[in-house]
């Protein structure tokens, strides 16, 4: 993300509302502590630093995900970055069950270009983005295709986490690339043959018949 925001790393900012104290540690986590004298007062994690939310070439928020479990899901928090005179946690809400919203004020985002995504990318990824812009302008790709390329760029830059679907797609691409040469194909074939031998032995130990030959 934006390098100038890294100076917030290692610091924590708190906000107290009624009996709860919220603590936001940028690039680390968000926690909530119930400030009562009850023996089972709640204290837990509302999210761990995960990825950025990006909209229209702008970092619009930080997603803190995979916090403590809450019914069937994990708690998660979106942190909105807004311009302010000092670094402070200004507002906390829970728009839906176990999904929290934090507003963090900081002078670090007051400059109109302070949250632009493009300048934070490597030259290679900037070129990839430029090419996508050109393809869209020439109507060689649709808006949807353009957004997909941007998603890939942001994932490659580490700004967004790849979805499971994308991960599977990437892995399958890797596998096909490994068979570009006969040598790689033979090596992979030998490894798979060894694996099948081991699996046949394992199936035999459990009395399960194996149909088919090694060539398959």
TrEMBL record:
Transmembrane segments: none annotated. Residues 10-112 form the MRH domain. Keywords: Disulfide bond, Glycoprotein, Golgi apparatus, Secreted, Signal, Transferase. InterPro entries: DMAP1-bd, Gtb1-like, Man6P_isomerase_rcpt-bd_dom_sf, MRH_dom, OS9-like_dom. GO terms for molecular function: transferase activity. The keyword Disulfide bond applies. It is found in: Golgi apparatus; Secreted. Pfam families: PRKCSH. One of its GO terms (cellular component) is extracellular region. It comes from the Eukaryota. Homodimer; disulfide-linked. Hexamer of two alpha (GNPTAB), two beta (GNPTAB) and two gamma (GNPTG) subunits; disulfide-linked. The alpha and/or the beta subunits of the enzyme constitute the catalytic subunits. This is N-acetylglucosamine-1-phosphotransferase subunit gamma.
């Amino acid at each position: 993300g934006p390098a100038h925001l890294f100076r917030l790393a290692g610091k924590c900012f708190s906000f107290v509302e009624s009996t709860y104290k919220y603590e936001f540690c940028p690039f680390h986590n968000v926690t909530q502590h119930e400030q009562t004298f009850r023996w089972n007062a709640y204290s837990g994690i509302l999210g761990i630093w995960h990825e950025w939310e990006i909209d229209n070439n702008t970092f619009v928020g930080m997603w803190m995900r995979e916090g403590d479990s809450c019914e069937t899901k994990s708690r998660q928090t979106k942190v909105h970055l807004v311009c302010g005179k000092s670094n402070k946690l200004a507002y906390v809400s829970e728009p839906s069950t176990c999904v929290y919203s934090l507003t963090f004020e900081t002078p670090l985002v007051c400059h109109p270009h302070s949250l632009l995504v493009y300048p934070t990318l490597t030259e290679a990824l900037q070129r990839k983005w430029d090419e996508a812009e050109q393809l869209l302008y020439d109507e060689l790709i649709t808006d949807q295709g353009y957004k997909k390329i941007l998603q890939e760029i942001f994932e490659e830059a580490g700004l967004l986490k790849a979805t499971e679907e994308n991960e599977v797609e990437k892995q399958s691409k890797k596998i096909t690339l490994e068979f570009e040469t006969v040598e790689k194909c033979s090596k992979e074939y030998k490894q798979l043959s060894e694996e099948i031998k081991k699996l046949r032995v394992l199936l035999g130990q459990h009395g399960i018949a194996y149909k088919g030959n090694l060539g398959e």
